Amino acid sequence: MLRQLEYLVALARERHFGRAADACFVSQPSLSAGIRKLEGELGVALTLRGPRYRGLTPEGEHVLVWAQRMLAERAALQQELASLEGELTGTLRLGAIPTALSVVSLVTNPFCARHPAAKVSLESLSSRDITRRLTGLEIDAALTYLDDHTLRDVRRIPLYEEQYVLLTPADGPLAGHTEASWAQAAALPLCLLGPRMRNRRILDEYFAAEGAQAQPAIESDTVAGLYAHLTGGPWSSVVSHAWLHMFGVPEGKHVVRLTGPAQGSRVGLVVAEQHPQLPMVRALLAVAREAGVRESLNALLRRHLPS
């Protein structure tokens, strides 16, 4: 039955029979047959009938919760048995908001070094998807904004606070400047993340606090897309200091400190409140506490913005 439960969880996640079959590495007829078999064993219809996936029945939604729990318990048992033999094995399922992907390696690298038999599966997820996937026990932990009001029943482990700096052309209007106001930054030709991104909404609040409004000429839904335009272009951008860890300072740009009362949002790990906690999660939290992410990023910022 566990295999059929995996099919149901995949179908609810992918909302498409073909994609769910691909995720389970089976053919679509095999997945459909498995779900029909599960329906027969339980004596209830789990999916709404139709030529395409239309959702789960109320009974199917109820079974889904149990399926997620049972599969998570199986994974926990497998990890516990492996840890009794002295070695952590299995896969750590980790999600991260796009703006935090640049610093994930500060945690995953020491994790893999300490537990060489373990693997890490990393996904870029929105804040909403992180909440949903944690609730459904589909990921073990996530790197996200800790003040996200949608997070429920999670344990929060702070890693760093975002500090925002301006990347601007070295020969542009702020050439030679070491500091600038948010209002000055708003007046520049800007490239920023799109308004659907949490980071952008945070920045808009800080611009508004100084009576300014950013009107970027270029918007991107990825940090990489933003940096691609900064390299060699006339654009400036307000970025989190954490992005400097991965992307550095593009050629022809220099870093300017943004002055004002803005306090960066806290970013950290969140894990579902489970008892007992997965050995994989316990190991991750132990590494995260010792990783010194905040100290590493602050040292990086000091190199680019000497006092």
Helix content: 40-55%
General shape: elongated
- What is the radius of gyration computed over CA atoms, rounded to a whole number of angstroms? 23 Å
Report low-confidence residues grouped into runs of 5 or more: none
| SSE succession | HHHHEHEHEEEEHEHEHEHEEHH
Q: Give the number of helices.
A: 12
Structural class: alpha/beta
Question: Overall mean pLDDT score?
Answer: 89
- First-to-last CA distance: 63 Å
Largest sheet at a glance? Answer: 5 strands, mixed
The largest sheet has its strands arranged as 2-1-3-11-4
Topology, number of strands? 11
Percentage of residues in strands: 15-25%
Provide an overview of this structure.
There is one protein chain. With 307 residues, the protein is an alpha/beta fold. The chain is 44% helix and 20% strand. It contains twelve helices and eleven strands. It has helices at 2-14, 17-23, 28-42, 58-84, 105-114, 127-135, 182-186, 198-209, 223-230, 243-247, 279-290, 293-304; strands spanning 90-96, 118-124, 141-145, 154-161, 164-169, 179-181, 191-193, 218-220, 237-240, 253-259, 266-272. Helix 1 (2-14) packs across helix 2 (17-23), helix 2 packs across helix 3 (28-42) and helix 5 packs across helix 11 (279-290). It starts with a helix and ends with a helix. 35% of the residues are buried.
